[in-house]
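G., the chain you wanted modeled:
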Amino acid sequence: MKYIFDNVSDKCSKLTTIAYSTSFSFGIKALDKRLHAPIYGIYGFVRFADEIVDTFHDYDKYRLFHKFKEDTIDAIESKISLIPILNSFQKVVHDYNIEWELINTFLDSMEMDLDELQTYDADKYNKYILGSAEVVGLMCLKVFVDGDEKKYNILKPSAMSLGSAFQKVNFLRDANSDYSNLGRTYFPNVNMLNFSEDDKQKIEHDIELDFEEALEGIKNLPLSSRGGVYLAYIYYYNLFLKIKSLPSSRILQERIRIPNSNKIKLMLQSILRNQLNLI
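Predicted structure as tokens:
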């Protein structure tokens, strides 16, 4: 009867994804249906870890985070957890042979956010991007290739570039709240009090290169996942273009968004392009 509990766990991961991210929710819906539950499972896990370090300021975040990490290890080792999000995630880990190294690298980057006074040089920045985004892309790639290690290794650099692009766009989108509310500046050698057009353009050039490499990989994904990943790419690339069109001063004044009405239009366009092989 465990399948009932597993079903409840999967629904919790799905509910978490829908509640926290319209973009990823739309992207997952564009995947083959058999991929929905495992990708919801990965998103639910990474979202909860991120919430601990970014949101729960009135609680003991250190204790909560390390308890979450211990519970994750126990869930994977025991192949079950009474925490639905972790029960869903551990099933994905075992079904798709996701290595602990990827999970631990992700958790290490989340732990970095517990130090709210931390400054980022180039090495720390790259380490954070690797753990918070690139390895999450690799976890999803494990699901998409479903055991095809040769294809996994071929697409690995592109999957990492896509995760990197998404995270760097997030940094620009959230620069106002990260700096004003959390005191964080992820970009190395950038003073957010004097965030210049030159600073912004250098970051944007770096993101553009990530998007270019990511798109080449998307073109070679299995058909079961290509449309959904392309849709997420289109959402983020259009958000990037909107950020790129704005002066650096606006970045620290508001959180830049793509309206849901525009997302629906982009969804229809991307589905059509994918179906016509025009990616």
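The domain at 2-275 is CATH 1.10.600.10 (Farnesyl Diphosphate Synthase).

Shout if anything looks off.
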